[in-house]
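Narrative summary of target 7.
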Amino acid sequence: MVELAIADSPRPVLLAYIAKRQEIPERYLVQIFGSLRRAGLVSSYRGAKGGFQLSRAPAEITLAEILEASEGKLELVECLRDDEDRCNRQGACSTRAMWADINGQVRALLSKITLARMVEMHRADQTRLGASYSI
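Modeled conformation, tokenized:
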């Protein structure tokens, strides 16, 4: 997602380009980008001028959205998942409320980090790393 935001191109970005820059197998990226597309975070285009673009501005996309699209629901422990009965002690568990609170705080933090902020951090790292030299 950072690569798409950095590209800031009116033309779609090829997965082969992202795979090469990030040293990630393209087949793996196809799976990830399928999930990102289904979540509405990217748009895909077929054909010779095909590829992927962000569906919204980087300032409108959060790290929480990206992680949920690519990894699934953001629960630190399985018993917090509403759609699954993983533990028969859920109703009487003394630590479930604590985990729910921690999980909420993590989710709130991830929701505050935008893709635009991640791009800023990436650019700052590139500037810092580019300033180093060896003799």
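Helices lie at 2-7, 15-22, 26-38, 63-71, 96-112, 115-130.
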